[in-house]
Design goal:
single chain; alpha+beta; TIM Barrel; Immunoglobulin-like; 45 strands; about 20% helix; about 30% strand; alpha-D-xyloside xylohydrolase; Alpha-glycosidase_related; carbohydrate binding
């Protein structure tokens, strides 16, 4: 939200007050509080009839410093609030220091400095005293607008050349400088400024992050009002934000996800290919069986089959009952599908249509959200007379999960938790939550409710969602997909931008609808999207009004689907190790180039390519004719598909067939390469190959996980003038070593030397 009229004036009717000077300071061992007047105090009379802003500075975790600014502290806090870890609000190593008029708070590599002798200001310093950002004379404030609404405001300085990323899954330009961004959930597709996953966290190219700890609407002006500042404001009496230290993007994300929650590790089977019925298409068991048979006949391994909305009867979503006319024997059908090795996913949402028998049941128990006058909140958008489950009521959450448990008993493995964005604010919640704060936060309790059920019923490590909406902390409940995109190259690029922004917002796993959702893709779009989708963390074929089985788009599409599905399966020892890293550290599987190469200025704006883990560069092709332009960082890179080498730093212009794309392996990488290309959750140590790339001398330890993400075996690889030496730990099984440069190879169970 903008408050000013240019640099000098305020907008009509806006009254703003800025922290001007410190009038009192209370310093404790690991935190301090400043009381700032909003005008220069020259005489005692200046202390009358004027506000103070209370500024609390503290550290909830190592390398994280929080600032809480408050005007009137008496406002009732009705919640909800983000859950932060470890939760005690005080980092054990945080220390304050005073010298003259300067007060400092240091936590790990991060220091907050406040100078009491000069004009108001807060400075944040990184390692070795390097200036990161700060709140200057107008950086701590409150304002009222003509409608009488009270806003707390903060501004943090942008340095010359500094870029801002993140703020959730945003489909607008990847670099957020110059944008106005409202953190407010919306069902707006991928071609607008609205977003399904709004995260009040941004990451700076200067090696720090900023998290605004407010679950309601946060309005960001990223160099768009004061062009040298990132401004954020909330309609509240208190504003709390955290500076998260780096200095690398991966360190920022690790600290941020330690604070807001690390992602669970999805089961290995979920990394295979998902196929759905699509949405508005016609399907029954015969249709589903024909799809599964068709994939098998064409040699395309399938891991998950998903039933979208119309598995239930029309006008009755959600009643969690199969349409008996279309699926007369659901238990038998699911058993037949599972006999073929498939996992089953079901579409659900948190709404109850009036025609559903569950409406009266839920209404009678008080499980539906109500308006202030006591009426149940309803509308006809999406489903007629639709109401909303009140997950703030523990009994309602248990009731909802009871319906899902019946599906799990039938053989369902996971759920697509669709929707959760259009949450009304003219309502009363069971637990008394503030409706404005609950609008964004609803996605969290919705997805958490379903994820927790899956963990209880299936066990830790076996729970996975396909979720559309999320807020901060939502990364704990993977996987999230990119929502409703058009079937076009433009939308394919939009989707990637959204995924890159989400990854820099702390989300470790992300997917999208291969081929696009709206409309029917041109075969060229579908084939190009196949390669991109099968080189994403999770891969799903899904559409709206048309099927997404590959043969609908020609035999070449079948070949492309087969090739990249088999490739992904062979990459699973590598990919699942990266997934386990995301679970442990919060560093995402799909990484913007900036995350791996923060010191290379050329990577700071790249939004049409990414790193899949630390060692694979992927540049999807967004053209029918196969022309692609991409950037190669420093070093010698090897095409995983052709074996050709490329030396960077360099920009490349290439032309690729539909069965190809730039897929480069980093110099010095050691890829664990599986033998089983038929499933994502096979025995990865069965005749494993370690593929050693490049010629650079060095050492690398490669871990092959088991299906829980724990290390099943590790291989220490040394390359020097004498050749390649490999030492294995944790396994006595045979493996193969292949040196890509020379083609030399060796077999061994302990130490292998390849000369």
């Amino acid at each position: 939200m903008k408050f000013t009229d240019g640099f000098w004036l305020m907008r009509e009717g806006v009254r703003a007050s800025y922290a001007t000077e410190i009038r009192d300071l209370r310093v404790e061992e690991n935190r301090f509080t400043a009381y700032a007047s909003v005008k220069k105090v020259a005489a005692r009379g200046d202390t009358l009839n004027t506000p103070l802003i209370t500024v609390e500075c503290f550290s909830p975790a190592e390398g994280v410093i929080g600032v809480r600014t408050t005007h009137h502290a008496g406002k009732a806090r009705r919640g909800p609030d983000f859950t932060l870890y470890p939760g005690d609000g005080s980092a054990p190593g945080a220390r304050t220091r005073q010298e003259g008029g300067t007060t400092e708070l240091t936590s790990g590599p991060l220091t907050l400095r406040m100078d009491g002798d000069g004009p108001w200001g807060i400075t944040f310093l990184g390692p070795d005293g390097r200036h990161l950002t700060g709140a200057g004379p107008k950086g701590t404030a409150f304002a009222t607008t003509p409608d009488g609404v009270h806003h707390m405001i903060a501004q943090l300085a942008l340095d010359v050349g500094e870029n801002v990323y993140g703020l959730g899954e945003r489909f607008t330009p990847y670099v957020k400088n110059g944008q106005s961004v409202d953190i407010w959930q919306a069902d707006g597709g991928t071609s607008s400024e609205q977003a399904y996953k709004n995260i009040p966290f941004y990451l700076s190219s200067r090696g720090y992050g900023v998290f605004v700890n407010h679950p309601g609407k946060v309005s960001f002006e990223v160099g768009s009002e004061a062009v040298g500042q990132v401004q954020f404001s909330v309609e509240d009496q208190t504003l709390e934000y955290y500076i998260v230290a780096g200095p690398t993007p991966k360190e920022v994300l690790s600290r941020y996800t330690a604070l807001t929650g690390r992602p669970a590790l999805p089961p290995a089977w979920s990394f295979g290919l998902w196929l759905t019925t699509s949405f508005c298409t016609s399907y029954d068991e015969a249709t589903v069986t024909s799809f599964v048979d068709g994939m098998a006949e064409r040699g395309i391994p399938l891991s998950v089959f998903h039933f979208d909305c119309f598995w239930m009867r029309e006008y009755q979503w959600s009643d969690f009952l199969w349409d008996p006319e279309v699926f007369p024997d659901p238990e038998g059908m699911l058993a037949r599908l599972k006999e073929r090795g498939l996992r089953i996913s079901m579409w659900i949402n948190p709404y109850i249509a009036q025609k559903s028998a569950l409406f009266a049941e839920a209404a009678g128990h008080g499980y539906l959200v109500r308006r202030p006058d006591g009426d149940i909140w309803q509308w006809d958008l999406w489903q007629p007379g639709m109401a909303l489950v009140d997950f703030t009521n523990p009994a309602a959450a248990a009731w909802y999960n009871g319906k899902l448990r019946l599906l799990l008993d039938q053989g369902v493995d996971c759920f697509k938790t669709d929707f959760g964005e259009r949450i009304p604010t003219d309502v009363v919640w069971h637990d008394g939550s503030d409706p404005e704060r609950m609008h964004n936060y609803y996605a969290q309790i919705y997805n958490r409710t379903v994820f927790d059920l899956l963990e209880r019923e299936r066990g830790t490590g076996e729970a996975v969602l396909f979720a559309r909406s999320a807020t901060a902390g939502g990364q704990q409940y993977p996987v999230h997909w990119g929502g409703d995109c058009f079937a076009s190259f433009t939308a394919m690029a939009e989707s990637l931008r959204g995924g890159l922004s989400l990854s820099l917002s702390g989300f470790g796993f992300w997917s999208h609808d291969i081929g696009g959702f709206e409309g029917t893709p041109d075969p060229a779009v579908f084939k190009r999207w196949l390669a991109f989708g099968l080189l994403s963390s999770h891969s799903r074929l899904h559409g709206n009004v048309s099927y997404r089985v590959p043969w609908e788009f020609g035999e070449e599409a079948v070949d492309v689907a087969r090739k990249f599905t088999l490739l992904k399966h062979r990459l699973m020892p590598y990919l699942y190790a990266v997934a386990a890293e995301a679970h442990r550290t919060g560093v995402p599987v799909m990484r913007p180039m900036l995350a791996e190469f923060p010191g290379d200025p050329a990577t700071r704006t790249l939004d049409r390519q990414y790193m899949l883990g630390p060692d694979l560069l992927v540049a999807p092709v967004f053209t029918e004719d196969g022309e692609v332009e991409y950037y190669v960082p420093e070093g010698t890179w090897t095409s995983l598909l052709t074996g050709e080498t490329v030396t960077g730093p360099a920009w490349r212009q290439e032309t690729h067939g539909f069965d190809s794309l730039p897929l480069l392996v980093r110099d010095g990488a050691v890829l664990p390469w599986g033998t089983d290309d038929q499933r994502p959750d096979g025995d990865w140590l069965d005749h494993l190959t370690l593929r050693v790339f490049g010629s650079a001398a060095g050492e690398r330890t490669v871990t092959v996980p088991d299906l829980t993400g724990a290390a099943a075996a590790s291989f220490h690889v040394v390359r020097d003038a004498a050749g390649v030496r490999v030492t294995a730990e944790g396994t006595g099984r045979p493996y193969r070593v292949g040196v890509e440069e020379t083609g030399a190879a060796g077999e061994g169970t302990g130490t292998v030397t390849v000369a």
